[in-house]
Structures are given as C-alpha cells and as structure tokens.
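Q: What would this complex look like in 3D?
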Amino acid sequence: AQTVTQSQPEMSVQEAETVTLSCTYDTSENNYYLFWYKQPPSRQMILVIRQEAYKQQNATENRFSVNFQKAAKSFSLKISDSQLGDTAMYFCAFMTVNTGNQFYFGTGTSLTVIP
Amino acid sequence: DVKVTQSSRYLVKRTGEKVFLECVQDMDHENMFWYRQDPGLGLRLIYFSYDVKMKEKGDIPEGYSVSREKKERFSLILESASTNQTSMYLCASGGGLGQGTFYEQYFGPGTRLTVT
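A: Here is my prediction, written as structure tokens for the whole assembly.
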C-alpha cells in the first residue's frame, strides 16, 4: 500500500523566517515522483515543487527547497524568507508510474505566515 | 498555461437528486482525475481516466460514476445525492507516459457541493 503522512496539521511562522514542513511516505516501488502542492484560502491548488526519486540532488524553486531522504522515505519542504502570500494548505504527494499515474496525497499542513 | 475548468464553483442540491459535475482541460492530457477534499482527510481519489471511455476506480468510488466521452472532458456523476457527499470536489488532469511531462497534475478551482 502507498501512504503519505504529514504529521503537522497546523504550523505558523513569522514573516521573513524559515519554516520546514515534514512529509514521509511508504512505497515498495523504486520509480516514483514526489510533489508539494499549495492551496491558498479559497484558491486553486498549484504545484510548488517536484522531485524525481532517481535524482539525488534536492530540488529547489526560488524560496522553496526540499530535503529528499530516499532511504528514510522523507520529503520535507523548506520555505525561506516566508511571505504573507505563503499562507496556505500544503499537500505532499507522490506518484508511482506503475500505478497509472495515480497520486497519493497527505492530509495537508495548514501554514500561517504571521506579519 | 494549462487550464482546468469546472462547471460550477458552488452547488446546492437536494437529497436524492442526480448531480453532474463537469471538468474540461485544454492541454490534451491523457489522464484526468476526480478527488474529494474534506478537512483532516486530504484529497481522496474517486475515479480517474487514462483515455477516452476508460475509467478506473479510486479509493472511494461508492455512490459515484464518471464519464469520459471526449479527451478534454471528464464528468463526475452522483446518481442519488446524499448528505454525506457534501464536500469540495476537485478535478485534475495530467500528462501520460510519452507525453513528455513530469506527471504533475493540474487542478481546477473546485466545486463546493452542499447536499441538503
């Protein structure tokens, strides 16, 4: 069974500070992809960052970076220089090619950036 | 930019009604998905489709059906709406194997359905 666990239902961070959202997953597959999605209040879900499991280098997108630990099955998201617009629900997800591109999502972390 | 649209942002229906939720994507994606989003439960997959007229059950298909007659359109049908189907419904599309994508899914704005 494929599972994704986000153990922090809610987090807060001061504006301009750094915050890390945790995610662990479980799979027996070797070929998979990992994603972080952001869902701002009452707005559309958008992709923040993705990581291919076969790549050892951690992905970065501007202020967003991941810490991918394949052996530990851990995929955390670091947000640097937090901005008010980062306030959102964040979902961790992974997909295995062998399961028809089906995504498995965590339950989400609600992040609030405090001015 | 990829665009995924859903027929309604908000919908209120009565128990027992047949409900249609429609989703359209403009990127020629092979794969389309219907999710249900509830607080504390994240996104749960209802059905997905990897080709026209093809469908696969997700984790919670009971009480739902789907239709994909054209590649760009994927409909979710609640045959007889019940109050426990009150939820946010999200549609997504994504490229398949050979479409040269990284498999990420693109989401529509969601339909908040209330069944009374």
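A: To summarize the key features: Chain B touches chain A at residues 31, 33, 35, 40-45, 48, 50, 56, 58, 90, 92, 94, 96-97, 102-110 (CB under 8 Å). The CA atoms of residues 17 and 68 of chain B lie 21 Å apart.
Q: Very helpful, thank you.
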